[in-house]
Amino acid sequence: MKTHKNILILGARAPMTLVLVRSFKKQGIRVILADSLVLPIGRWTNAIIKYEQLPSARFNTQAYINTVARLVSNYAITDLIPCCEEAFYIAKYKNKFLCKVWTTNIQELNRLHNKETFAKAFKHQLSIPETISADEFKNWNHSNHYVFKQKYSRFAGNIFNGVLLTKDELGNPEKWIAQKKIHGKEICVYSIWDEGELRGLVCYEPLFRAGKGAGIFFKFIENKEVEAQVKKFGEHLNYTGQLSFDVIIAKDGPWFIECNPRGTSGAHLLENQLADCFLVNGLRPFQDKRNQMLLFLMLLGYPFKFFKKEVRQAKDAIFRYYDPLPAMMQWLSLFEIAYIKLFKRISWLKATTYDIEWNGNES
């Protein structure tokens, strides 16, 4: 028990952050939660001592950094854990925070996040498909054998998958990559690191998604080859923080198609041991293999899937009898995202990250 710790967690909008704060509370740790949204799902949890609203990391960066630094000082914070894309801003100004910051340096984060530099820089450490900047791509007659994605994107947004294209259709091809299409089953990997030491890792299949991108149903799977590659990679980088990957399991083995150097939904599957991944040295043995889902979104998007036994038996990632308000109040969080969507005229998924996105050119 390390009750002397005071932890500041950023990214209260993410359901995985709710799992994290609950896990710390069970260990007797004081947690302050912060985000730039007014009504994020984490605001309602009884696992925190305070919710603090922040300026926008993307549009008011200096005020954001100054506010986080003030919170670190005011609450005598020992550990700062960013969970969403605010991690890039925190990493860039890492030396301003007088506590342990659970990120690697901004140069490494940016190389991992940018789909072109990830492929170029790490093709000898991981199995990564042929990836080229779209402005250098020549094989347009066979573009249907490639997947075109923006170099900075998330939730599978703005993708052309297996269709014939012309260079002009991309608008700004220098902002896109062409990646050789790999056929197989897509899985995700979530891991936690401290200075090159692997603390936690889980592989899972996002059986159902919100649109094309974000998973809302998480099925535990085991893949030793993927786990071995991730372990070797994180050690090579001497990585600190949360590190996630999207992987295609093909007939010839796993292919790492992109990297997300931040928290993802795999945290739900590590629920019972999540805090220990940040508190205790060494890799945590995986315990609970029960599938989890975001029940509210599953009911909205896939109501008839509840006839399937696998779905009925899955655990809701949000509701807990000892902390019921996040599940009861999540419609308010959805209402705030809907307001951003309508006001900014953007998609649902883009609205969830609009004020914290990192696209490589932020101040």
UniProtKB/TrEMBL annotation:
Superkingdom of the organism of origin: Bacteria
Domain spans labelled ATP-grasp fold PylC-type: 114-264
InterPro entries xrefs: ATP-grasp_PylC-type
Pfam family name, one: ATP-grasp_3
Identification of the protein by name: ATP-grasp domain-containing protein
